[in-house]
């Protein structure tokens, strides 16, 4: 049985009947809890063969421990019109039984085999990826997309800062315009200075709103492109 023994290890036995009569067989082991045998008994036709799977259950392997597990394959000629296999073995005489004994050997893979397995596991996903995903994209196209994305992000940040600045200026001008209107209404003499400030404040607001609207449009177009 080849290791490692962290999972089920299966070994096949090939039983062949070279005679011209049907043969009954039974597989026995000294460690029935450690092995699963399928089939463990049956009939082999003349000149035919049967494959018996012996499955070793997972266990903690100790290289210093010698294996004492053994198997025995018993055979006997099948009586005519056989109906009960258990009765065949119970009624069989010792001189009618034939047996073959096998000793179990546990082998751990050497370091070269481990390295070959690791190399194969590393190379296999690469081959599968190249076949399924097709050719890899060109390196310069990837860096170009990253550069464009970085520029757009920086532009959006700049526009956001500009919008915040203009918003503060607009709030300040609006407050100043409200203050000047109050001064103009309270000034009964209608001085030219107050009127001049009121006209300048009212004329600056529309043009400033147009600039803010244009920046907002550019900002939303930038987000849409991203």
Q: What is the compact description of this entry?
A:
GO terms for molecular function: FFAT motif binding. The chain has 226 residues and is an alpha+beta fold.
Tell me about this structure.
The chain is built from 4 helices and 7 strands; from the N terminus they run ββββββαβααα. The chain has 226 residues and is α+β, with helices and mostly antiparallel strands. Among the domains are: 95 residues, Immunoglobulin-like (Sandwich); 33 residues. It starts with 8 loop residues before the first strand and ends with a helix. About 11% of the residues have low confidence. Belongs to the VAMP-associated protein (VAP) (TC 9.B.17) family. Keywords: Acetylation, Cell junction, Cell membrane, Coiled coil, Disulfide bond, Endoplasmic reticulum, Membrane, Phosphoprotein, Tight junction, Transmembrane, Transmembrane helix.
| Structural class by sheet pairing and helices | alpha+beta
Q: Give the N-terminus to C-terminus distance in angstroms.
A: 60 Å
Low-pLDDT runs of 5+ residues are: 118-134, 137-144
Count of alpha and pi helical runs = 4
Q: What sort of overall outline do the alpha carbons produce when their principal axes are compared? A: rod-shaped
CATH topology of the domain at 9-103: Immunoglobulin-like
Whole-number average pLDDT? 75
Task: State the major sheet.
Answer: 4 strands, antiparallel
What kind of oligomer do you see?
Answer: single chain
Give the helix level as a range of percent.
40-55%
Total strands: the figure is 7
SSE succession: EEEEEEHEHHH
Strand content: 15-25%
Please list the strands of the largest sheet in the order they lie side by side. 4-2-6-7
Rg, please?
46 Å
CATH class of the domain at 9-103: Mainly Beta
CATH architecture of the domain at 9-103: Sandwich
At the fourth level of CATH, the homologous superfamily of the domain at 9-103 is Immunoglobulins
Keywords: Acetylation, Cell junction, Cell membrane, Coiled coil, Disulfide bond, Endoplasmic reticulum, Membrane, Phosphoprotein, Tight junction, Transmembrane, Transmembrane helix
Family: Belongs to the VAMP-associated protein (VAP) (TC 9.B.17) family.
Coiled coil: 149-176
Organism: Serilophus lunatus
